Amino acid sequence: MSALFQSLIPEFERMKQRYPAGFESSLVLPCVRRVQEARGHVADEDIAAIAAYLRVPRIQIEEVLSYYTQFRSEAVGKLRVEVCRNVSCSMNGAERLIGHLCKRLGVAEGGTTTDGRITLSTAECLGSCGTAPVVVVNDQYHENMSIEKVDRLIDGLKGD
Amino acid sequence: MAKDTKILMTFPVTATSHRLEEVRARGGYQALEKALKTMTRQEVQQQISDSGLQGRGGAAFATGRKWSVIQLGDGQPHYLCANADEGEPGTFKDRWILENAPHLLIESMMIAAYALEVRHAFVYIRGEFEGPYRRLADALEEAYAAGLCGNNILGTDFSCDLVIYRGAGSYVCGEASALITSIEGKRGYPRNRPPRLTVKGLYQLPTVINNVETLSNVAWIVAHGGAAFKAVGSAKAPGTRLISISGHIARPGVYEIEVGYPWKRLIYDDCGGMQGGAKLKCVIPGGISTKVLTGEEIEKLNLDPAEVEPAGSSMGSGGMVAIAEGTCMVRLLQVMLRFYHHESCGQCTPCREGMGWLHRLIDRIVAGQGRLQDLDLMARISRLQDGNTICGMGDAAGYATLGILAKYRHEFEHWISTGRSMHEGNLECRRSS
């Protein structure tokens, strides 16, 4: 078991207290999320550690990882930029925004910049229709975006 | 009648109006106290039945009837889940509650938990809702610290824990049985009914799943009585609705309207009409899975299921999208079908294959390679999905497709016969000059 997983166990134990007894299987999603937050993605050794800790079959973790859009088993850029392209965002300029970002970052949708810093992806409805279009950077919403605002946002992104 | 009653949006939103201190100063948690200290479980359930409250997630099922399936004193654990997996495109009303009135949801859930003999309750919130999750999680810790949640709530012998369970990006998990499967820590696959979830739900035990907005009405009903709630709105659809309106509207946002409120008044008076004074082309009434109505069709309608349904659509989830004249409906449907294709969980053949098929057909039309018979094919695929899948997603994509095809077929025919859009593929609002 990795030191990373070991260090999260006290947190998981605290979390368990509000669940009914026998709900170990339910902890799969929260554990996967927390491990991903800590590592940036879920590595093969994490899958084994979660399965052993929760006493669930390894395949359950793998199925969950491949099913949910937010989970990833491979490393991406430290800065994850997502643009919603569903109905209300598209009706308020999301397609122009995506085109602009692809050009500016020199990547296609889903791609990572050559320095490995920024990953650009598109998303379906994020519940930001009234403040469309929305750009999400590392889970933080930036709403009512325009090309000028998204340029300022990218300029101001810190961290590698 | 004025039709101006508010049940949920009753206070001015400020930077601190969601905090427990201010909530209690406004009278928050008095309904919980009333329920726990002066009412039996059956009395609370009776008030909900009397209120005529219906589900606000889209299906409008009677809440009292759903609750009545739970057998009190049957010796089994019962579970309660608030569905906060708001993901129907165009819908962001539950987000308003989670961000601005999280204690209203927590109070209402504790009342519901008491009425349904629930020891453990869950809020299933979509994974992308980082901000709403923080607000709700902070509110929950405030509630625990104040003895409004957890052991011996308000000094009574009623105890209930509340867990916020975060999804991870799956539209289908907003479907109740998929939501349950997700809380069990698995892929969010919908399940066949029967058995109903109120009989065999979470870990095969009786489970009530209600939408966030539905549950948030419970505190008001307990405070004012079921009869008072029933007097609001219309007799067959009592209460108010949170309408989240977006698209080409001048003032998008969440509006609480009493059922029966004039549609025109919402669009032109409250929301200031369309962006840049454009003309209204059509409206998606309640999430993209509800059938589109033209600007003329909504003119005389009131926002009441008794009027919207005979007009051929539904109030659905209250996620309204206003679309301006000059918008290309072919491209709009393309955006929708790409979405449905992306979100199909792949369990049922008609949806797994049908979504991809519809998506490929519309992409082909947009690429200028469409054939006129593709339109009949799209309608046929849509009808084949209806009622032939475990969950309603197959039906929903079909309704969206059939709704647009029925009213804007000429735009598709134009693209197919000329190889280009009638409206230059336009999705954004441009003022018609």
Number of domains of chain B: 3
Mean pLDDT of chain B: 96
Quick one: overall form of chain B?
globular
CATH topology of the largest domain in chain A: Glutaredoxin
Q: Beta fraction of the residues of chain A?
A: 5-15%
User: How many runs of DSSP E, i.e. beta strands of chain B?
Assistant: 11
Output the helix-strand order of chain B. Answer: HHHHEHHEHEHEHHHEEEHEEHEHEHHHH
Q: Main β-sheet of chain B, in a few words? A: 5 strands, mixed
In the CATH scheme, the class of the largest domain in chain B would be Alpha Beta
- N/C terminus separation of chain B: 38 Å
- Largest protein interface? A-B, 47 and 59 residues
Name of the CATH architecture of the largest domain in chain A: 3-Layer(aba) Sandwich
Major beta sheet, strand line-up of chain B: 6-5-11-8-9
> What overall form of chain A do the CA principal axes indicate?
elongated
Task: Give a concise summary.
The complex is a heterodimer of chains A (160) and B (433). Chain A is of the alpha+beta class and 160 residues long.
Protein architecture, described:
The complex is a heterodimer of chains A (160) and B (433). With 160 residues, chain A is of the alpha+beta class. Chain A has 2 domains: 3-67, Arc Repressor Mutant, subunit A; 79-155, Glutaredoxin, CATH 3.40.30.10. Chain A contains 7 helices and 4 strands. In chain A, a hairpin with a 2-residue loop joins strand 3 (135-137) and strand 4. The two termini of chain A are 28 Å apart. Chain B starts with 19 loop residues before the first helix and ends in a 15-residue tail after the last helix. Helix content of chain B is 42%, strand content 13%. Chain B is globular, with a radius of gyration of 22 Å. Chain B has 3 domains: 20-230, Rossmann fold, CATH 3.40.50.11540; 242-324, Ubiquitin-like (UB roll) (Roll), CATH 3.10.20.600; 329-418, de novo design (two linked rop proteins) (Up-down Bundle), CATH 1.20.1440. Chain B has 433 residues and is an alpha/beta fold. At the A-B interface, helix 2, helix 4 and helix 5 of A face strand 3, strand 5, strand 11 and helix 15 of B.
